[in-house]
Amino acid sequence: MTDTHPTDTHVTETPHRPVVVLTHRVHPPILEMLADSCEVIANQSDGSLPASELRRRAAGADALMAFMPDRITAEFLDACPRLQVVAGALKGHDNIDVNACTERGIWLTRVEDLLTEPTAELAVGLLIGLARNITAGDRAVRAGLAGWRPTLYGSTLVGSTIGLVGAGRLGRAVARLLSGFDANLLYCDPEPLSSAGDHGLQMEHVELGELLTRSDAVAVCAPLDANTLHLLGRAQLESMRPGSLLVNVGRGSVVDEVAVAELLRSGHLGGFASDVFEFEDLSRPDRPEGVPEELLAIQDRTLFTPHLGSAVASARLRIEEHAAEAILQVLTGEVPDGAVNRPLRTHSPGPTPAL
Asked: D-isomer specific 2-hydroxyacid dehydrogenase catalytic domain location, by residue (predicted)?
């Protein structure tokens, strides 16, 4: 295994072994798992590699393990003539050009279920944090607690109406957790659930407009595509019930963050929490450079986390294992688990790893 640093200028490759490039830090067992049969070019630093350095490393790669901060374009793939698989240690893959992979005979894989439960858990935590003014309470205690005072009264999830924008695996997982709060659950999704629901889960299917006007709190669990970009724009946010709460654990760009800031300042929105942000969505050429300053300046009614949805140690390890297994499957001529596409052609078989 070759553990390199962004400033390294030379990598020694073992002859006759497939080259696997890892774009971001992984757990040590993953390095060992791949190093048994491959030459591993790792990035165990805390940050992303400069684009030029990643391209240099990937130029001779047979496989690439990619993460959310990576942008895998057709131009990038054209500079990687040996590449057979891009294994995403992620679920949403809007940062990777699927068609370009398919046309170039490159498999694209993703992890479907392993991120769902940890992200759903965080969504409920963010809802509780907003409803019960937890961050404001923490600051009050640290500033000097005088004892109980009739302040920071919030709301409760118990018996409330909560709307879910998106009822895929994530939306349904959030709903299952919220069912323990005896909440009235609404959802909007292009594909309504069957009449049996999800293992008996009671959810009412409504259009987005009705969901927003009826809900005390709204949780965004939708992926990003052409139909969901700013799905919750200014007009939709203005239609929400006054004082209602909004939580986003789907994709940042599903929500118009500038409009959120304005409606928080006006008092129309009661609070906003998010684990995902517009600037992270690399598929958008017009994405902002960061979280809007006007949104960051509103502290009392916001709660932000740095993409912690799947940041559970055991879950992250399993996600990386899934991506590594997909790489090894492709390198041995198998159809990989979690395949997003079917390449139009395949590469000539390379050296077979000694598994």
From this structure: 20-341
Residue 4 and residue 34: Cα distance in Å, rounded? Answer: 16
> pLDDT, tens digit, for every residue of 28-44?
999 999 999 999 999 99
DSSP letter at 348?
P
Choose among 303, 259, 302, 255: nearest CA to 279.
255
In three-state secondary structure terms, 73 is coil
Amino acid occupying residue 290: G
Question: Do residues 331 and 352 lie in contact, with contact meaning Cβ atoms separated by under 8 Å?
Answer: yes
Catalytic residue among 278, 280, 320, 321: 280
Please identify which of the residues 234, 265, 307, 347 carries the catalytic annotation: 307
280 is catalytic: yes
Model pTM greater than 0.90? Answer: no
Q: Provide the β-strand partners of residue 20.
A: 40, 63
Q: What is the pLDDT of residues 172-218, one digit of tens each?
A: 999 999 999 999 999 999 988 875 455 578 999 999 999 999 999 99
Render pLDDT for 283-311 as a digit per residue (tens, 0 to 9): 898 999 999 999 999 998 999 999 999 88
Catalytic residue among 251, 301, 316, 322: 251
